[in-house]
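Session log. Operator J.P. requested a structure for one protein chain; no other inputs attached. Running the standard single-chain path with token output.
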Amino acid sequence: MTALFTRLRIDGFIVLLVGTVLLASLLPARGIGATITGGAADAGIVLLFFLHGARLSRQAVVDGARHWRLHLTTMAVTFVLFPLLGLAIWSLPVLTPPLRTGMLFLTLLPSTVQSSIAFTAMARGNVAGAVCSAAFSNLAGIVLTPLLVALLIGGPGAGDGISGGAVLTIVVQLLLPFVAGHLLQPYIGGWVARRKRMLTVVDRGSVLLVVYAAFSAAVVEGLWGRVSAADLLLIAGLSLALLAVVMGATALLGRLFGFVREDRIVLQFCGSKKSLASGVPMAGVLFAAPEIGTVLLPVMIFHQLQLMVCAVLAGRYGRQAEASAD
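Structure written below.
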């Protein structure tokens, strides 16, 4: 089964996510079950961001600062170009207000870490640069994503921005655990780095918990009565168009700024991706429980599409590099 998913370019984690959504649709958490699930999801978010802080070494920060042009360009694509495109999508009348919010929220997220680095390595790009760019994007996203949500997501049908209580929740659940983990990095960083399997379980388990809690609340509030198959197809089409525009823009910017091939690959793979691992817990903090399921649909769909497209491109770039080396 794993080999089949690999051949079809289907991320196994996406299968788990779909299964979690189906479980929440058939057996949503209610009453005391919803309270317990929500508490476990909150605890998972705190642990997730603590471990993210513990992973980021001081040396990675120092090394990354030396290649500031590449990292600033990647950040500009992630937190400027993407949101501008998100606002363009927001203006389209074909989407319902909750799905418009979800598409805009998608464009405000930081880049992925693991897959950006993996695809850069596959394409024979600058892996050290990818590590720094992805790490900086996620670090900045802890602050920038909530700020952009507060600035851009508001008005009829889109929520009322971020309240003071939500800001406190962001600080307590996201920022403080991350800072605590990073301050302890010199002492526990090695231990954390040696336990990749445990970290994967925590990462994915936390996301699945938040997804189950979010979709349970959304299903109880009538999610599937508001989202049709046509809506899902429309989201997929818009996600593909969004990905194509950003892929083209990163390729063009890499050439305009005179980056070498290895750095152009970093810009394309780190700049074009959006993090599901960060998006799910952030949505859990930034939006009301009944809204989260609908908001996360575009993030989940875009995540799988970006993996399939980037896998094909990375393989192509890698073969080109091998051919030129012969």
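Operator note: Confidence is low (pLDDT under 50) at residues 155-163.
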